[in-house]
Amino acid sequence: MEESFVTFAKLIDVPSPVDDCIRVFLSSRSSLGKFIRSRVSNIEDAEDLLQETYVEALRNYTKYKGDSTPETWMFGIALNLIRNYFRRNYSKPTLCELEVVDYEYSEDNFDLESRIHAIRLLERTLQATMRLTTDMRDILLLILDSQGNYNELAAHLDIPVGTVRSRLSRAREALRRQVLD
């Protein structure tokens, strides 16, 4: 049935949904690639995620309902794949073992106690970050990626700046409670 529709659509020169997907792929390749590379530092992994985005879009193009632009739909697919990438690769924080080392003590430039405190605080912060809800963790990561630019993040997520600020405030407060308790 689907093949006959595509054949009929080509006969009367109506673009098929696959043609629409290809048009969107070509028009959004640069911006989609930048979007993924800004979140995934490994270039090869970013390229893999870009390709996976295209594969998922082609595999699920019949599920596209038209509630948003095709580009927004593709960016949503990419964001979900990025989340999965981080869950898969960073689901458990790496634990830092403090090695016993003979430190040469110098009052001028070295404070062992404060360094140990800083390392422990960092470990607690990383563990607390992993315990946050996915939404809270995502907003923290996205604000870091946008270098603290609330307006840019609001435009990217297509939400008001006030919503970005309130979500970020809730995420910071949850993180603060978990780290300091």
SSE layout and pairings?
Elements: H1 2-11, H2 17-37, H3 43-59, H4 70-90, H5 112-131, H6 134-145, H7 150-157, H8 161-180
Structure, explained:
One of its GO terms (biological process) is DNA-templated transcription initiation. It holds the Pfam family Sigma70_r2. The chain is 71% helix and 0% strand. It is built from 8 helices and no strands. The chain has helices spanning 2-11, 17-37, 43-59, 70-90, 112-131, 134-145, 150-157, 161-180. It has 181 residues and is mostly helical.
Helix content: over 70%
CATH class of the largest domain reads: Mainly Alpha
Sheet of most strands: none
Question: Strand pairing plus helix content: what structural class?
Answer: mainly alpha
Q: What is the straight-line distance between the termini?
A: 61 Å
Write out the CATH superfamily name of the largest domain. RNA polymerase sigma factor, region 2, helix turn helix motif
Short description:
GO terms for molecular function: DNA binding; sigma factor activity. By secondary structure, the chain is mainly alpha-helical.
